[in-house]
Amino acid sequence: MTSVNTSCSTNMTVWKHTTNQLYTYVYLIIFIPGLLCNTLALWVLCRFISKKTKAVIFMINLTIADLAHVLSLPLRIHYYFKDEWPFGSGLCMLCFYLKYLNMYASIVFLVCISLQRCAFLLRPFCARNWKRRYDICISAAVWLVVGLCCSPFILMRRKSNSGNNTTTCFKDLPMRQLGLTSAISMMVGAELLGFLGPLIVIGVCTYLIVKSMRRRNQKQQSTGSTRKALRMVRVCTGVFLFCFAPYHINFLLYLMVTQNIITNCEAGQAIKIFHPISLCIASLNCCLNPLIYYFLTTEFKQQLSQHGSSVLRGRLMSTESTSSFRD
User: Fold this and answer.
1) Cα(158)–Cα(173) distance, rounded to whole angstroms?
2) Using the 8-state DSSP alphabet, how is residue 169 labeled?
3) Rounded Cα gap, residues 260 and 15, in angstroms
4) How far apart are CA 156 and CA 294, in angstroms?
5) Between the CA of residue 194 and those of 101, 106, 138, 221, 246, what are the distances in Å?
6) Which of 14, 13, 22, 41 is closest to 288 using CA atoms?
7) CB-based burial of residue 87 (10 Å sphere; 0-12 exposed, 13-18 middle, 19+ buried)?
8) pLDDT on residue 159
9) What is the mean pLDDT of each run of 10 residues along the chain (327 residues)?
10) Which residue segments constitute the domains of the chain, with CATH numbers given?
């Protein structure tokens, strides 16, 4: 038994170094495109799109959630590259918190986008009477609820300092031991409210839109808006499953390992190894979400194209006027 435990401990020590490299490279790959795409998306959505029925407010909030996580990536990259955290425990906890806030805010806003597109397609009169302030109130409620629900992720971590006064952070923060009731409540809440519930809602939206499209095809009344709504919900479903399903499948097992509910060495090792991989996959949503805005929102492409053309024309005109003045 001792030799098995020693082997497991040795393997996990080697994996810790590999994990640091994994986080460093993945976050480096995500940072630049995530920052550029989300900054551009936020600028275009806020300045040029005035449509009330295109879930624009929810897209703006989704972009803000992605930017909050992307802006914390340089500090994460520094920690995993240098293996030290000189920025204080408060900033460590904030960056740690933003990771999970981004994940669950993204999940909820993807659900809101799918629900609104489905509801406005099936109930066009509801769309006409819908007010922008309704979306703003819903978004504020989402941030409040998600912010409170993500607090256990940081409450479960304890501050820890090594002997050389270098503060550890993120994955190296030790886990608090929870009671059986608290552990079960957290597992059920995260899985049901954070994954299975949203998955069911998005799945129902997809089913209703497909059903509506088939009915309209039979009556030869299918429209472009129906196909666009279906593509929107399908892409939301794809991003949701690709980014968040691996993490939530592994999260339940990972929490059982950290709380010593699963004690088998090989099983615990496999679960711990897959945990950082699933977190890296979840972080990819910062780069994938802008695809929803660009490829599925006609107004986004039109306004971006028109503005880009106007800027180019302005530069050409200024260049021509300067050259003619010189002549």
Assistant:
1) 6
2) -
3) 20
4) 38
5) 11, 10, 17, 37, 13
6) 41
7) middle
8) 58
9) 49 71 90 90 76 75 91 90 84 87 90 85 77 88 92 71 59 70 74 87 86 68 64 80 88 78 79 88 88 65 57 42 41
10) 16-294 (1.20.1070.10)
pLDDT digits (tens, 9 = 90+) for 57-115: 888 899 999 999 999 999 999 888 888 888 888 888 888 888 889 989 999 998 998 88
- Cα–Cα distance measured from residue 127 to residue 189, given in angstroms and rounded to the nearest whole number: 32
What single letter denotes the amino acid at residue 79?
A: Y
Contact present, 132 and 57 (Cβ < 8 Å)? yes
List, as own/partner pairs, every contact residues 284-288 make where C-beta atoms lie below 8 angstroms and the sequence separation is at least 24, other chains included: 284/30, 284/242, 284/243, 285/66, 285/102, 285/103, 285/106, 285/239, 285/243, 285/244, 286/30, 286/34, 286/38, 286/66, 286/69, 286/70, 286/102, 287/30, 287/33, 287/34, 287/37, 288/239, 288/242, 288/243
Q: Which two tokens stand for residue 36?
A: 């550029």
Rounded CA Rg of the chain: 23
Global model pTM greater than 0.85? no
